[in-house]
Amino acid sequence: MGKGVFAKEFIKKGEVVCDYHGDLISHKEGMILYNQYPEDINPFMFFFEFNGAKHCIDGNKNCNCHDFSKDQTKGRLINHSKSHPNIFCKPRLLDNVPRVLLYTKCDIGLGEELKFDFGVANDRISREDGANAFLEA
Predict the structure, then answer these.
(1) Residue 44: its pLDDT value, please?
(2) What is the 3-state secondary structure (H, E, C) of 57-75?
(3) From residue 132, how far is each of 51, 73, 86, 87 by CA, in Å?
(4) What is the rounded distance in angstroms from the CA atom of residue 74 to the CA atom of residue 10?
(5) What is the CATH number of the domain that holds 125?
(6) Do 44 and 73 touch, CB atoms closer than 8 A?
(7) What does each C-alpha distance from 19 to 22, 32, 89 come to in angstroms?
(8) Which residues contact 61 (CB under 8 A, 6 or more apart)?
(9) Which residues, given as ranges, of the chain have pLDDT below 70?
């Protein structure tokens, strides 16, 4: 299992907890990069569609608004759970740029781990059968 993100206080259902942050690239560029990663590495890449266009957020690259040597954005550290997610992702336009925001599906208590369904099937990061222990729900 990855590092994980835990609630430092009670969070009400429907609140934005963070975004999935990184460098916005095309879906095509994202697939090329994704396929270069070894099977046992989680590439921290988020593929999504917004207004009919396909995009990718590369969470491995430094963005212009964060110093990754001092601060890691929280969205990419959230673990996967297909069976028990308590947050969900929704694309939004922020400052005329497509972004992915993460919202709570239910009330989340102090110390509770945040988890979302990565939404992938038949893929190296979707296996909950023990093949990838870092993704156990």
Answers:
(1) 84
(2) EECCCCCCCCCCCCCCCCH
(3) 33, 23, 21, 21
(4) 17
(5) 2.170.270.10
(6) no
(7) 9, 23, 8
(8) 22, 23
(9) 1-2, 61-72, 120-137
C-alpha angle 69-34-22 in degrees, rounded to nearest 5: 35
Helix, strand, coil distribution of the chain in percent, nearest 5: 10, 35, 55
| pLDDT score of 77 | 83
Write down how long the chain is: 137
Six-digit token string for 55: 């995009």
**How many domains does one find in the chain?**
1
Q: What is the DSSP string of 68-104?
A: TTT---SGGGPEE-SSS--EEEEEEEETTEEEEEEEE
Instruction: Give pTM, 2 decimals.
Output: 0.77
The residue among 127, 124, 17, 39 whose CA lies nearest residue 83 is: 127
Q: Which residues span the domain enclosing 117?
A: 5-135
- What amino acid is encoded at 101 in this protein? L
The pLDDT of residue 137 is 30
Based on its alpha-carbon atoms, the radius of gyration of the chain, rounded to whole angstroms, reads 15
